[in-house]
Amino acid sequence: MADYIPLSDPTSIIGISSPTTTGSVGVTPADAGAGPLRAPATNQKSSQVQAASPNQTATQAQPVVSGPPYFVRLVSAVSGAVVTFNASPDVTEHRQANYKPQELVHLPGSIQMYTNTPSRTFDISTIKLFSRTTEEATINMNNLWVLRSWLMPNFGTGNGASGEIIGAPPEVLYLYAFSSVNSGSRNNPTNINKVPVVMSTLNIPYSSDGDFISTTNGDPFPRLMTISMTLVEAQSPQSLSNFSLAKYKAGTLDGF
């Protein structure tokens, strides 16, 4: 399942278990020992993670994130809210280079003129949200609304709370996948680490052939829901200006 915990600092996540820690929420006994990216299941009481309501502010919630630091997670660059996927999803990175062919008369081929390299896209699929208890179902339902909110702008007369910027676009997120969560500065190559992204699609299926469990409010929620999403890299103009091919090739360029 996913855990949602707002943090006061989106670049510093504390309370993360070491890779040897067991008891991650949302991993079923069938997943235990399936690979290095799945934490073993343990006693439910000891594995329950404290989660915050989406209405809590960053200072009201305890900055606790479960599971090894290489779990796939999204961190809001605006509010510091964190959604962690404890059951490892499939992550596919897409990137291409664009060339414009130059067709010359009688030439037995075309000359490829480079134009640009667009931003990457990340397809995250088979995100399994396990709800074995009422508490887990409630957390997962809250997380879905957090994920939905990351597609929406701050628009309308219902906004205007202290600190909100009316008219702001959807929040920029930091994507971490299979790498340690840190401030983003690194000296060695790693996997996807603090890459700024925006969410472009979110797919939430409510299957008709699965079992449901009640939340704390009595609403039904699937015991197993598999969602998916697409994220688009969203580098700032300053980050693009500071791009270094040498650092990128070495895997040490922060934010890329």
Number of distinct beta strands: 12
Tally the helices: what do you get?
4
Gyration radius, rounded = 20 Å
Spatial ordering of strands, largest sheet: 1-3-2-8-9-12-7-4
* Helix amount: 10-25%
Report the order of strands and helices: EHEEEEEEHEEEEEHH
- Rough outline: elongated
- How far apart the termini lie comes to 27 Å
Tell me the major beta sheet: 8 strands, antiparallel
Mean pLDDT: 76
What does this structure look like?
The protein is of the alpha+beta class and 256 residues long. The protein has a domain of 177 residues. It is built from 4 helices and 12 strands. The strands form 3 sheets. Strands 1-3-2-8-9-12-7-4 form an 8-stranded antiparallel β-sheet. A two-stranded antiparallel sheet has the order 5-6. The radius of gyration is 20 Å and the shape is elongated. About 24% of the residues have low confidence.
Compose a concise summary of this entry.
With 256 residues, the chain is an alpha+beta fold.
